[in-house]
């Protein structure tokens, strides 16, 4: 079986937002849609003993996605390889899934015509991978820092398997039981002043 | 993290849906369990039920209008796992059978043939409409509480609260609209209407108290413990920016004052008209308060991120369109 | 929405380079029917497939609706925004006629040109300016590397700007934030750091890079020079330097010890806000973890008066620790010996000396006076030199002042090539005034910028994907990388070389000086000497892509010294002294600071730092790119929560930031990114979405949120050596925008000269303003021995150099060519070829005997005319032709080649055997008797047909 996951290495991310722009550019997203915001709580601590981390995010492609069962039309769905996606021509933009997602990763553009709305979210670049099964999502390709790694967790030789097995990782809001498939490697080092 | 995806149409829809569903549920209960065999009951409740259909219909219009693609609303009926889907189904059942049931009471001469024919199915239709209505009442609460991402919604107290509120507002609505057309104005109908009126009055007295208790339990429990997000919302309700709305509007005018009028002004216009109207307004306000309390636990830094994004009217967004060169 | 299929028929992949910053990342462009349908990062280039916000937006840039696509000729008043589109060549001719007219009336120097960062070579502009005869070309070079490069070259002979981090144990990122500026570099740093290398970051801001540092020094903005001096003091006085290196390769050590005595960490502490112990720790970490690198950051060039002092001190830090040009240290590439340098493309020899003297700059290090000495030294030591573009330029702000004042003379025309000086040069209000006032303004631009708005002509520029890009670090390095043009320029856009070439030809310049019609032809010319198996530039990109010369380190050992006049690393720089500067870094403070200007503190208590690169913008670019702008719509400055509280500022509030020179509006980002005494403002802001003509005091909001409204370019505020002005360490105040005071008006950015004056308008002429430091008189020693005609004596190393070639006269009487250490005949310039014992004229390819007699060659075989006996063994049946100097068959005119043993036909070059003279047929490996038509095997056996 294939089980696509992404590992995000906070030790490497420097918050340049290239992934965000690459995603919205190559996926031709409306301006107000951001699939993969790079978040940061800003500089924390007491000057000058401070530190800062970035949290690049995207759809968590949950094992038990809250957004799929709540969809009345069946547009929101999950592939066998773990990809959660939306079949746009079945969506009617009721926004149930938008409100169901605990990560806020589903969005509706207000820049589209009022009556032609649908809900959008990251699909691990499903269109691209369908054209070329070995392809990587755009956010991964464009990352100079190689902070985003995409791959098959069921393949023990994949880079994601090695990273997840080799370093401490965490996932976001695990307690909600959604089984998010995005693993973060925290930046535990600090800046010595 | 505020989510601006569901706004006033949804709140109104939840109110109207609960109200309409509640009226049908109460009608069925009254007809089948409280006054079995007394056909006059249905007759005096025909007008409230017609209002219920209008309410549900209006709610549906708002709901469909709120969709990103209203013209394909029928897609909502497809998937069994979805609460919305079941909501759409039970609402349809309630409205369709309720409407057929109502048609059977229309006293116009030219319509008598059809009405007579439909009258055969009255019990069947009312049973389905009542059942559907009851489901709608439950659904409005479950609809929100199933969305675990929103901690203020994701509590079992919410369906209970919405159910009580829906029935309470239904009672209130029935009490001010019972016995009108198409019921014939006879002594019998007046008596039946008055009996039901009194009964519902009593029930509403209890329901309002229940609603008050459940509401306070829900809000105050979030205030005491609860997770950070729900706690923040509860604070907004209790002692934050919405405190006046909550204490004066919701608790005071929407629940306590009508209760007082119900109990201490019995028989006056205050009890029979003002109090029910206040209950209805309070029910509506409750839906608004709850729907607008759609805070989601933010990811670290999420607030900061969205705070810095421009609003959709920012000039640079609309200044240039690809394909339309300036120079 | 649909994914674009790059494998579809008809889609061609072109290896291109990104053009949106200096990192020039590899980009794969997918082209169909003459249009780019998609781009991706090149996984096989140094960026490893990575592309930043800007790079990924290349297609949006290419097709942006606000791009200038046709020549716009002004038809209304200046700034009114009324344009007429006219054909490109017609516009070129009109501009050329006007320029020629100004030249005839006021001299060529009345025409100036401002350049943007073209992120590739820019010799074409200089080629035009030199032929036109004006010395007044400039970029924003003074804020970006050039003063540093020149100071470093004075000290050690070239800028040690290349890193060899694989072997480094310590890296200082000083005033550099690769985490927001050069992402491919940051990737490498992160990899190495995860493998154990220590990173020290010097930055007043807790930058992206500082967030990952092992040691971070949050110094006071603008105090870099003091920190460098104190670190140097610690290394010298704690004996942490590399004594062996200093002893063998450096000069002036004793003087330096004496000079540095007072610059202790205790001295620097109040200036830098660092604890003395922090400074000691950093100095020790750098000095004891050798080899190590100090990566250069633009900050050094942006602290104003102390800029070159700072980079000079840092250059000495490297020197005394022996980190120069060694494995793991800072690499000194030198000019490209193996291919044509940018300097060789510039035709500097066409600019007359008297025109050089008219260059508008009082800052000698970065203009003709300093360049001449540095360049001459480079030619003597390396054999080639720096380009004049960037490294020898007019002082931009002084040119703008000259437009306004006519001092030193009236500049009448300005050609701006891909630059918007209002936002990128200091004192924006003065610059804007100059752009409004200049008689004739031409811009070559992508966009309708505030500068373009006031232009008489706006020429559309071709950008990324529409042009090939070559990376030679502006002619300062010996490696070379290239990217192809993905598509021909769209609409009427032209590349800058085409613009300058067309303009040059229209001005009447010699077509022979503009031999290349396209960049590809020129670039092929540049790399032809490499002898690569290519026949055009695009083949280079497809098959080679990157050229690195062999032997890249410890070149000074092979060279027998460093590339300074004395051959040593000059700890007390003689070139600096010759130019009237201190030979050793001598501290000078920022223009506004508590120590020198305490009276300003009451009014302006906060320290302002600006100018650092920040994602996702670059300089003043990309504000039109909606996908980027959406993520960063407003200008945010950083302020510490304590300071914010003090001034009642909350997150996101619009605030005024005010210096003595004006005030601007930005939004507050309240977080502990900076010291409570500091605010950090991003640079470059303007609002291209506005109607520029609506407010000509503030067109496109170009002053409203532009930090350069706050900076000063007064002569006394500039670095007296390099001429750069301060973007860091200015005093300011900050307060919330109130409803009653929320409109930016002309009063907020009133033009005055001097810039800090309360009185509007010009009250002091530029040349009446003093420099920050008076020149120190220096007398060059007189020759101690007789200098032959045509030679020049170098006082530092007591050597004679031939004028013109700058070849050193060896004791043997030969000249030495520093490029390859070959011997050159002093009389003729012919090179001695030891293998053949001949002299070679490189220009003609002709060879001469040691008696300077031309050697004839027949079919490539050398002849020995007049020699009685053949100087090699000749088969006995051949006849020695004394007159021609060849061995020949008795009956045939075939020449014997002693190297191969074959006979050669002088007419065809065909091989014949030496016994019968049969012609060799390679196809069948047989010999052919041309008389009979018979064939023989190689053993002279007849071939049976």
Main sheet specs of chain B: none
Structural class based on helices, strands and sheet pairing of chain C? alpha/beta
Output the number of helix runs of chain B: 12
For the sheet with most strands of chain C, the description reads:
7 strands, mixed
CATH superfamily of chain B: Formate dehydrogenase/DMSO reductase domain
Strand proportion of chain C, as a percent range, falls in 15-25%
Measured as a percent range, the helix fraction of chain C is 10-25%
Radius of gyration of chain B: 22 Å
Low-confidence stretches of chain C: none
CATH C-level class of the largest domain in chain C: Alpha Beta
Q: Can you characterise this structure?
A:
The complex is a heterotrimer of chains A (193), B (327) and C (945). By secondary structure, chain A is of the alpha+beta class. Chain A has one domain: Alpha-Beta Plaits (2-Layer Sandwich). Chain A contains 5 helices and 11 strands; from the N terminus they run βαββββββαββααβαβ. In chain A, the strands form 5 sheets. In chain A, strands 10-1-11 form a 3-stranded mixed sheet. The N and C termini of chain A lie far apart (48 Å). Chain B has one domain: Formate dehydrogenase/DMSO reductase fold (Up-down Bundle), CATH 1.20.1630. Chain B has helices spanning 8-34, 40-66, 83-103, 112-119, 122-145, 157-177, 187-224, 228-239, 243-264, 269-291, 302-308, 315-319. Chain B is globular and about 75 Å long. Chain C is of the alpha/beta class. Chain C has 5 domains: 71-142 and 340-476 and 492-515, 3-Layer(aba) Sandwich (Rossmann fold); 160-331, Dimethylsulfoxide Reductase, domain 2 (3-Layer(aba) Sandwich), CATH 3.40.228; 604-708 and 722-763, Barwin-like endoglucanases (Beta Barrel); 791-848, no CATH class; 865-945, no CATH class. Classes of the chains: A alpha+beta (193), B mainly alpha (327), C alpha/beta (945).
Labels describing this entry:
heterotrimer; B: 327 residues; mainly alpha; Formate dehydrogenase/DMSO reductase fold; 72% helix; C: 945 residues; alpha/beta; Rossmann fold; Dimethylsulfoxide Reductase, domain 2; Barwin-like endoglucanases; seven-stranded mixed beta sheet; six-stranded mixed β-barrel; 23% helix; 18% strand
């Amino acid at each position: 079986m294939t089980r696509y996951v992404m590992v995000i290495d906070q030790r490497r991310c420097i918050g340049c937002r290239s992934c965000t722009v690459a995603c919205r550019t190559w996926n031709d997203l409306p301006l107000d849609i951001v699939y993969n915001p790079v978040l940061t709580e800003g500089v924390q601590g007491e000057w000058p003993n401070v530190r800062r981390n970035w949290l690049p995010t995207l759809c968590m492609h949950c094992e038990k996605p809250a957004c799929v069962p709540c969809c009345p039309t069946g547009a929101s769905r999950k592939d066998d390889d773990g990809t959660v996606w939306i079949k746009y021509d079945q969506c009617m933009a009721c926004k149930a899934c938008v409100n169901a997602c605990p990560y806020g990763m589903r969005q509706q553009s207000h820049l589209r015509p009022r009556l032609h709305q649908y809900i959008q979210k990251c699909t691990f670049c499903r269109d691209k991978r369908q054209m070329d099964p070995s392809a990587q999502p755009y956010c991964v390709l464009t990352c100079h820092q190689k902070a985003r790694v995409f791959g098959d967790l069921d393949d023990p030789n994949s880079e994601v398997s090695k990273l997840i097995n080799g370093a401490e990782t965490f996932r976001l809001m695990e307690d909600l039981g959604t089984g998010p498939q995005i693993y973060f490697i925290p930046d535990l080092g600090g800046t010595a002043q | 993290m505020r989510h601006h995806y569901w706004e006033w149409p949804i709140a109104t829809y939840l109110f109207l849906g609960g109200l309409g569903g509640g009226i049908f549920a109460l009608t069925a209960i009254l007809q089948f369990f409280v006054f079995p065999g007394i056909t006059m009951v249905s007759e005096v409740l025909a007008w409230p039920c017609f209002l219920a259909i209008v309410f549900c219909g209006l709610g549906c219009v708002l709901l469909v209008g709120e969709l990103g693609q209203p013209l394909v609303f029928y897609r909502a009926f497809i998937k069994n796992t979805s609460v919305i889907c079941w909501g759409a189904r039970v609402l349809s059942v309630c409205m369709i059978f309720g409407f057929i049931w109502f048609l059977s009471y229309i006293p116009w001469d030219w319509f008598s043939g059809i009405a007579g024919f439909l009258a055969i199915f009255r019990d069947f239709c009312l049973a389905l409409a009542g059942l559907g209505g009851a489901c709608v009442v439950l659904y409005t609460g479950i609809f929100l509480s199933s969305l675990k991402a929103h901690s203020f919604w994701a509590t079992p107290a919410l369906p209970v609260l919405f159910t009580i509120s829906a029935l309470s507002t239904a009672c209130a609505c029935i009490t001010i609209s019972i016995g009108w057309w198409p019921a014939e104005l006879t002594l019998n109908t007046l008596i039946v209407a008055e009996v039901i009126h009194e009964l519902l009055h009593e029930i509403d007295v209890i329901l309002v108290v229940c609603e008050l208790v459940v509401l306070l339990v829900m809000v105050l429990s979030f205030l005491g413990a609860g997770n950070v997000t729900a706690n923040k919302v509860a604070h907004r309700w209790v002692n934050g920016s919405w405190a006046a709305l909550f204490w004066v509007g919701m608790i005071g005018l929407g629940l306590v004052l009508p209760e007082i009028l119900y109990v201490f002004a019995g028989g006056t216009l205050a009890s029979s008209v003002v109090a029910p109207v206040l209950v209805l307004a309070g029910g509506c306000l409750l839906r608004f308060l709850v729907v607008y309390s759609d805070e989601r636990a933010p990811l670290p830094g999420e607030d900061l991120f969205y705070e810095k994004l421009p609003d959709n009217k920012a000039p640079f967004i609309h200044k240039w369109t690809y394909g339309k060169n300036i120079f | 929405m649909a994914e674009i299929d790059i494998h579809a028929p008809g889609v061609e992949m072109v290896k291109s380079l990104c053009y949106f910053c200096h990192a020039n990342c590899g980009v794969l462009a997918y082209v169909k029917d003459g249009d780019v349908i998609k781009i991706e990062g090149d996984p096989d280039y140094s960026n490893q497939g990575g592309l930043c916000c800007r790079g990924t937006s290349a297609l949006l840039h290419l097709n942006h609706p606000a791009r200038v696509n046709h020549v716009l000729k002004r038809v209304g008043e200046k700034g009114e925004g009324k344009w007429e589109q006219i054909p490109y060549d017609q516009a070129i001719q009109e501009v050329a006629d006007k320029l020629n007219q100004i030249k005839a009336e006021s001299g060529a120097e009345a025409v100036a040109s401002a350049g943007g960062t073209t992120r590739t070579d820019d010799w074409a502009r200089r080629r035009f300016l030199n032929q036109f005869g004006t010395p007044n070309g400039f970029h924003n070079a003074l804020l970006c590397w050039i003063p540093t490069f020149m100071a470093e070259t004075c000290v050690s002979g070239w800028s040690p700007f290349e890193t060899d981090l694989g072997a480094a144990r310590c890296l200082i990122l000083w005033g550099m934030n690769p985490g927001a500026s050069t992402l491919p570099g940051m990737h490498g740093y992160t990899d190495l750091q995860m493998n154990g290398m220590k990173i020290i970051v010097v930055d007043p801001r807790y930058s992206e890079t500082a967030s990952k540092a092992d040691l971070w020094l949050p110094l006071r903005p603008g105090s870099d020079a003091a920190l460098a001096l104190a670190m140097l003091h610690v290394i010298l006085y704690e004996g942490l330097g590399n004594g062996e290196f200093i002893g063998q390769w450096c000069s002036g050590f004793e003087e330096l010890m004496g000079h540095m005595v007072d610059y202790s960490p205790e001295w620097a502490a109040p200036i830098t806000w660092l604890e003395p112990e922090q400074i000691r720790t950093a100095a020790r970490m750098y000095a004891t973890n050798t080899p190590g690198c100090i990566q250069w950051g633009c900050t050094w060039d942006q602290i104003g008066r102390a800029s070159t002092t700072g980079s000079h001190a840092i250059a000495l830090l490297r020197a005394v620790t022996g980190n120069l040009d060694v494995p793991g240290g800072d690499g000194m590439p030198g000019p490209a010996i193996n291919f044509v340098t940018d300097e060789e493309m510039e035709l500097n020899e066409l600019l007359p000396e008297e025109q050089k003297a008219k260059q508008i700059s009082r800052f000698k290090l970065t203009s003709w006076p300093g360049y001449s000495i540095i360049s001459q030294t480079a030619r003597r030591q390396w054999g080639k030199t720096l380009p004049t573009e960037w490294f020898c330029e007019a002082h931009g702000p002084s040119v703008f002042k000259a437009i306004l004042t006519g001092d030193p003379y009236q500049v009448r025309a300005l050609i701006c090539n891909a630059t918007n000086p209002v936002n990128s040069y200091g004192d924006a209000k003065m610059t804007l005034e100059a752009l409004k006032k200049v008689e004739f303004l031409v811009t070559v631009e992508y966009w309708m910028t505030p500068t373009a708005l006031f232009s008489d002509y706006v020429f559309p520029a071709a950008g990324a994907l529409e042009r090939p890009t070559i990376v030679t670090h502006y002619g300062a390095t010996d490696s070379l990388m290239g990217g192809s043009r993905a598509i021909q320029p769209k609409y009427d856009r032209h590349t800058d070389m085409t613009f300058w070439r067309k303009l040059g030809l229209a001005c009447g310049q010699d077509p022979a000086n503009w031999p290349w019609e396209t960049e590809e032809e020129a670039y092929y010319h540049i790399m032809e000497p490499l002898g690569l198996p290519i026949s055009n530039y695009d083949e280079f990109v497809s098959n080679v892509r990157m050229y690195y010369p062999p032997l890249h380190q410890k070149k000074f050992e092979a060279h027998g010294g460093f590339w300074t006049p004395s051959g040593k690393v000059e700890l007390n720089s003689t070139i600096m002294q010759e130019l009237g500067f201190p030979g050793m870094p001598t501290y000078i403070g920022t223009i506004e600071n508590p120590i020198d200007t305490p009276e300003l503190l009451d009014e302006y208590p906060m320290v302002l730092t600006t100018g650092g690169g920040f994602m996702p913008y670059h300089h003043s670019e990309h504000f039109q790119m909606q996908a980027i702008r959406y993520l960063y719509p407003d200008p945010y400055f950083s302020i510490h929560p304590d300071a914010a509280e003090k001034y009642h500022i909350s997150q996101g509030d619009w605030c005024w930031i005010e210096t003595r020179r004006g005030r601007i509006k930005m939004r507050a980002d309240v977080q502990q990114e900076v010291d409570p005494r500091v605010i950090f403002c991003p640079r470059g802001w303007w609002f291209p979405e506005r109607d520029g003509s609506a407010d000509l005091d503030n067109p496109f909001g170009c002053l409203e949120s532009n930090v350069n409204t706050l900076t000063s370019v007064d002569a006394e505020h500039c670095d007296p050596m390099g001429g750069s002005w301060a973007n860091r360490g200015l005093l300011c105040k900050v307060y919330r925008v109130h409803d009653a005071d929320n409109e930016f008006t002309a009063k907020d950015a009133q033009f005055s000269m001097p810039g800090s004056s309360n009185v509007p308008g010009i009250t002091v002429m530029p040349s009446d303003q003093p420099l920050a430091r008076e020149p120190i008189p220096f007398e060059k020693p007189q020759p101690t021995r007789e200098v032959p005609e045509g030679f020049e004596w170098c006082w530092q190393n007591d050597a004679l150099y031939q004028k013109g070639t700058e070849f050193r006269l060896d004791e043997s009487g030969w000249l030495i060519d520093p490029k390859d250490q070959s011997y050159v005949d002093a009389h003729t310039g012919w090179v001695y070829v030891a293998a053949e014992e001949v002299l070679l004229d490189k220009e003609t390819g002709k060879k001469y005997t040691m008696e300077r007699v031309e050697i004839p060659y027949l079919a490539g075989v050398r002849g020995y005319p007049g020699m009685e006996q053949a100087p090699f063994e000749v088969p006995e049946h051949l006849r020695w032709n004394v007159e021609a100097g060849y061995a020949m068959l008795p009956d045939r005119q075939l020449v014997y080649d002693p190297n191969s043993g074959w006979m050669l036909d002088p007419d065809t070059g065909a091989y014949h055997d030496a016994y019968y003279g049969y012609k060799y047929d390679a196809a069948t490996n047989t010999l052919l008797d041309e008389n009979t038509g018979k064939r023989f095997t190689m053993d002279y056996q007849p071939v049976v047909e």
